[in-house]
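ugh ok fine here u go
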Amino acid sequence: MLKTDRYRDKTTIGALLRRIDDKRRDLGSSFRIMEVCGTHTMTIHRSGLQPMLLDAGIEMISGPGCPVCITPAEFHEAAISLLSGREGLILATFGDMTRVPTRLGSLRRTVPARDSVMEIIYSPDETLALARRYPDKDVVFFGVGFETTIPAIAMTAKTAHDQKVRNFSILSALWVIPPPLRAILESGEANISGFLYPGHVSAIIGVKPYAFVAREFGIPGAIAGFEPADILLGIISILDQIQAGEPGVANVYARAVRPEGNRVALSLMDSVLKPTDACWRGLGVIPASGLALRDRYDRQNAEVEFDLKIEPRPSDLPGCRCGEVLRGILAPPDCPLFGKACSPESPQGPCMVSFEGACLVHLRYRMRP
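structure:
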């Protein structure tokens, strides 16, 4: 049996679901658990866990764990303006970012300025290769991500700086996960019994950054991996904490997450980036929830290099309710546009674009038995 197979074994899954149902019955209540990460959302729906958990009295709700989804439209519009308004420029970004709709259209449908082009890349390293291959062009990497991908983006900026690659810069939209959890809890909008914390983010930041959720709000949580059994073990841990009256942060993904996180990655991030207040789609400006390049990396900062003015403003398409989905107060099927005016072929918001977007996941797997 492959290592991952045991986390998908039907007998194991059935036993874990029965254990959840028994615990929930003992507690005499139903529970709403927010899966912070879009990959968890994908697993829950793709594997068919969602209806089985509902039958066991557990409602899973999506959170702000999709970087494409939470990046506000003004960043996309800045990238569109660069591509359409500046000659001799290469704009490189990840594929999902090219399809996000704004009032200026999407990157994919933007007509580039003369001698400019958009490139879809899979790794930040590819953007440096483009800059070296085309030294007569400005290469801008539209880099978006959470703590999982931020170290690679930071390393790219550092390499460009150290090697004096002067035609390379980053339009960065970098976010850190713990602060929006505080914002969601302080708003009081969503009734949350527990948090399923993202495994890959936690592999970088460790356990401690989530401790405030239990300490200040009395809400339990568990760091979980991305196989069906991982998620169920996380839910069981949350129910155990509720039953014991001892909320905390359990690590049920110890095979990948160390309590202290990845110290090398954290040190790299700290040397290249600095905390900054950041605007999240649907959540507004959250203190110290983003990361920006430090001043010594101004040459690698596209906002500085091209004098970009990126300011929060209402620029979503009319009727889009992605913001409420990301706050956990609206299920995607409850949006009037869902599956009608808003579809993967004609998305009205980023939650229907990203592979990990809650709306796309719900639509793709809603008929799955």
